[in-house]
Structures are given as structure tokens and as C-alpha cells.
Amino acid sequence: MSITIGQAAPSFSLRDTEKNVVSLEDFKAKNLVILFFPLAFTGTCTKELCTIRDDISNYQNMNCEVVGISVDSLFSLGKFKAEQNLNFPLLSDFNKKASTAYDSLFETFPNDMEGVSKRAAFVVDKNGMIQYAEILPAPGDLPNFDAIKACVASL
Hints:
By secondary structure, the chain is an alpha+beta fold. Helices cover 28% and strands 28% of the residues.
């Protein structure tokens, strides 16, 4: 199912690196940036998430939270989060339900891997509606951070 601006964001409930269940509904009354990323510890994913880490205060000042989601295990994500000093939750979509719901799952990925999250960015407003959607076809591309911030600033 394709994600379109103005639709209700698909709900999710995933475990974070502390083994807590985190749901879309936990972010009501705040805007939310959801970043799907292929794999922890890879160059582009590290660059993407560290870019957000270094700019997190701008998002927080706009009443916005950020979460990163990948199909990695919560244990791998925990190590990655600690190693990179990431200051926002990483959620494990090990069962690929959220990636599928957000149309952000590669059927095939380099090195004969299947079922890896695509790099994608979504902005969900405080009412749970999609206000920005960017699904990148190539795993080496980064989302448009300026467009994401402009969308959040407009909410």
C-alpha cells in the first residue's frame, strides 16, 4: 500500500533498544519524524542518523520527536545506538510489519539479502496524519533533511 500525504499514519508497536514497546500512539500531541533505514553499522545509515543526532534540538524545539526503524534486532540497534551516541529511540522492526505498512521494504537487497527496510522518511503530525513522505529507491541516498525540517516547521 502506497503512503500518501494526508492519510492516517499506519500504526505500529515495536521494541526499542531497552526492550520497551513503543507505539505510534505514544507520540500523540507531538509531531513525529519516522526514519526507516536499511541496516545499522553501515556508512550511509550512520551518516543519516548522526545528522539527526547532531540536529535533534531543532526538532525538539518544534515539538517534534524522531524515531529510527530498521529490521535489525533490538540488540544490534542497542549497540549501534550506544556506539554512535544516538539521542533518539531506535526501534526494531525485526518482523517487518512496520516497514511493510509504510511501503518501505526492499524485496531484494545487495548481497542476496531479502526483506531489508528501505531508506524512508515520514513526518506525522500531532493528529496522526502523514504530512511528508519520502521513500528513496537507492539505499545509498539520504533523505532531504531540509524538506523534512521545513515540513515540521510548518505544522
